[in-house]
Amino acid sequence: MNRYDLVVIGAGPSGYAATMRALDFRKKTLLIERNLVGGAGVVNGALSSKTWWELSRETASFLKNLKRFNLQVPTINYKEIQDEVMRAIDERKGMLEEHLQLMKSSQYADLVSFKQGTAKLLSQNEIEITQEDGTREVVWADYIILATGSRPRYLPELPIDEKSVMTSEGIEKMEDFPESMVIVGAGVIGCEYATIFSGFGKTKVHLIDKGNRILPFEDEDIVHVIERNMENSGVLIHRNSRLIRMEIKHGRVEYELEYDDGTKSVFNVEKALVAVGRIPNYEDLWDEKVDISISKRGIEDNDTQTNISNIYAVGDITADISLVNVGELEGRYAVEKIFGSPERKLVYENISTIMFLNPEVAGVGLNETQAREKNIDYKVVTLDYSCIPRAIAKRNTQGFIKLLVTNDDHMKILGLKIIGNHASSAIQAVALLIWMNKGIEELAECVHPHPSITEGIQECVRMLLGKSLFKPDALKGKLSCRTSMSGVYADIRF
Ligand SMILES: Cc1cc2nc3c(=O)[nH]c(=O)nc-3n(C[C@H](O)[C@H](O)[C@H](O)COP(=O)(O)OP(=O)(O)OC[C@H]3O[C@@H](n4cnc5c(N)ncnc54)[C@H](O)[C@@H]3O)c2cc1C
Ligand SMILES: NC(=O)c1ccc[n+]([C@@H]2O[C@H](COP(=O)([O-])OP(=O)(O)OC[C@H]3O[C@@H](n4cnc5c(N)ncnc54)[C@H](O)[C@@H]3O)[C@@H](O)[C@H]2O)c1
Fold this sequence. Notes:
- Its EC number is 1.-.-.-.
- By secondary structure, this protein is of the alpha/beta class.
- About 30% of the residues lie in helices and about 25% in strands.
- The protein has three domains: about 5-45 and about 85-150 and about 280-340, FAD/NAD(P)-binding domain (3-Layer(bba) Sandwich), CATH 3.50.50; about 165-275, FAD/NAD(P)-binding domain; about 360-490, FAD/NAD-linked reductase, C-terminal dimerisation domain (Enolase-like, domain 1).
- It has twelve helices and 26 strands.
- The longest helix is centred in the first third of the chain and has 26 residues, at about 80-105.
- The N and C termini lie far apart (about 75 Å).
- The model has no long low-confidence stretch (mean pLDDT about 95).
- Flavin-adenine dinucleotide (FAD) binds near residues 45, 316, 323 and 327.
- The site of nicotinamide-adenine-dinucleotide has 23 residues, from helix 4 and strand 20.
């Protein structure tokens, strides 16, 4: 039986990161993958959907410019766009695979191995690997990291066939733009695909929202901008509506909604996308005698260690945030915990996120919704993009910056949200400050490049310190600098 210091199951972002970190400790490591290297970080997930989003955004802006100059709009070819997404997937997947391959002729040749197959724990040290042709092999591991990810949650009453009624597993395999599509679930995946398909201008998108607004975890002012843009691109948002029936009829999708007031309506569309959350992949991953503790949300771990001392769990399989950066963080942390001692604690409070909508929304730390849920009083400063020269130069000033700090003299940064162009590139300085437990003074004085969106963040900080270029009292509606105590706002006067 082959023996390894570490066996990692699943070659998505978290398993791949764990494997590579183990090599830094010069440990003999086996990585097992049953499907595609890269997991949902590449295919039917992060990279593929972001490529669709980039192409949709470019198309939307191209079409807008053509209209502006009164030029004829060309046909948008679905196949060409889909092929471009495939090229992006192949590029990234190829790179991850080639890297593994090249390891064989590097200083890591004796350390790293990769096997294609489905893994199952027979005991807390033995892993059975079954290849596609049925060939089985059992290997021994001192330590095991489970990184088998997640898959879309199904609603059993819906006829999901991945052709007419799809999840994120099927949506990228369509053959043409549907003329209409309903999306069930107004969370991140639902709203990103609503943005993508409405952006190409070929699909009438319907979005079913259980509550009175999309993205229930997000601040109302952010959601307001996103909803307005979606509706301006023709998205029909069914608010306060419950899906009570969905059927495939003559190759199309018929669905019925019941609204909060008890009334009902029937709709007919070409396709449906179901995006109501994801569930962890742990079925059949271990023999029952291994007995790893799980909850409905995933494996309950103690800083990546399961209740079985030599078995760790990372990424989407665990009961916490499901993101590529979080999976990689956990993968690396687990290895450091097993073979060394991590230099820092595993914290989730300061994770940077981006939602790929119209416009993009990026953030780090707490938003106002979370601060209020935690009964935290805070100072909050907002600045409209129309005050930022770079946004003016881009001829698009839609968006704003919102910075939350503690309601005391230290003004430690609690969180930052930016909605607008370049939001994702602008948040990182603040993410670093939060991570370093620094206050805002450093940001106020550091010379920023001009013109840049980050100058807007600097102006927010200066507003909090009472030394901004523009004064919130004069530019009401574009700037605000307030306290929020027990959920009630009051202007800060200097
Ligand atoms: C549509 C979509 C868009 C997303 N966009 C973003 C984004 O913009 N930014 C972001 O940060 N995150 C995004 N995510 C989330 C992100 O993709 C996941 O959080 C991330 O991929 C999780 O990584 P993972 O390694 O834990 O799991 P996965 O990526 O799911 O990888 C797990 C791997 O394990 C393999 N596996 C499973 N069981 C076995 C077994 N028994 N034996 C061997 N191998 C096995 C699977 O085949 C898979 O390759 C998105 C997800 C989706 C679905
Ligand atoms: N840009 C990003 O970082 C990004 C992009 C996509 C996905 N992701 C990750 O993938 C995860 C899964 O995304 P998701 O959108 O599937 O989940 P989600 O939890 O973000 O949203 C699910 C939505 O479905 C709704 N819902 C649940 N049951 C429903 C029902 N029966 N009928 C109608 N609506 C229902 C919920 O109210 C919620 O709004 C995210 O939590 C995130 O971690 C991240």
